[in-house]
Amino acid sequence: MSPLFLCLDCGGSKAAAVIVDRTGNVVGRGFGGPSNFVHVGMNAFLRSVKAAVEDAVEDAIGSKTVLPLSSPIISAAWFGTSGCDRPADAIALQTPLSELLAIPVPRLLITNDSHLLASPLSSHPEAKSAIVVIGGTGSNCVSFKKKEGQVGLEELSRSGGWGWILGDEGSGFSVGRTAVRYVLTQWDRASLYTSSDDLHDIPNEIHPETNKPTLRARIFTHFGISSPPDLFSVVYAADPPPVHPASDESANAPPSSPGPVAIEDPTTPSVTVDAATTLPAPTPNAASAKPSTPTPNPNIHLLERKHRLTSLTPLVFSSAFDDGDPDSLRVLRTCARTLAEHINNLMVPTDGSITPGSKAVRPEETVLCFGGSLVGIKKYRGLVVDELVRLRGGLGVGNGEAEGKEEGDGVVAGVVFVDDAAMNGAVGLASEFAV
What we know:
With 435 residues, this protein is an alpha/beta fold. The protein has helices at residues 37-61, 87-101, 114-117, 163-166, 172-190, 215-223, 231-235, 305-310, 313-322, 326-345, 378-391, 421-433; strands spanning 4-10, 15-21, 26-32, 76-81, 108-111, 129-135, 139-146, 153-159, 270-272, 278-280, 366-371, 414-417. The protein is 33% helix and 16% strand.
């Protein structure tokens, strides 16, 4: 049998397994349940891995296979595991995963899932380093370099990743928060010149440049409010009580709660809360057809506070990229710049100087590897690259849509969006081991 190489992307919502042959062709795929090692615990993690690998192996060899394996089928495996942040975590997983797959520990790579996003570095021989840019509900930037004479990548440094209260710049949460702040700043400035009685028809506003609802009209309609002070009752209301599992079948199973919104390219018709609940996205009509007072949206309070703001992200993207709303574009550019600042933090200064022992990477030797729902939208990714160009002393392009931006605009060695981390990891693993 030709050597087979397995990679698993183990995240909070699912485990995705991909098997490739020695040439990098995908021969099998499988999926399991939630597999954030810290959140679900060892037992639930191994069950999810087992389900994903069994499906992938059956897909690859055409027959049902039950783990643990009695003899090796997989030549080498890479587990990119969310929640595996310390060397002790990887060590704890080595023995059970080695026994599950019947492969020796030296042919088992266990890392944080961010390492998978850096796997395209193996296909850029001219590059020496990579910066992973994660932009979804949250955000984080991590730099890596190739290991000399060894398999895998060495993590160098991180910028960001401090969670929604202290960080998550440029993320879905950041977009929602920045949009609300922008609206509040507009309100504060307008109140200097206009009485508050004249500022209460916001849900019916039409932007003079686009002839479409303004950003704040969309936000107010989405939340079902009529004025900025009403935001207090939406943004600061307490989180809903957690929904505990129906049974105690697994002590490791995490409580289910409303999760992050789903963001597609360029927008989504609805915001997913959980399997049973969706929040309708705003579909405003002409001002004359609207009621004077928006209908309250009771489902908003089913969301945790951070997800109430994140739920605004699809409408901001739609307003910016579909309608060309200038306020929404300003919001996205502001968010893109904060994410670009984290990327820039991991690079050598613009004058090229570098302190001995520094872990900063040289941009011309670095591949930017984007991953996540937000940066999966090319126009937003273009804004991030454009802002990085500005920070590095370039002029920038200005709209996030220019040709050539995916190549790094002369600042970095390349720009890649990793939409299938498990596949990229498996291909990278095959290139390292298939000799």
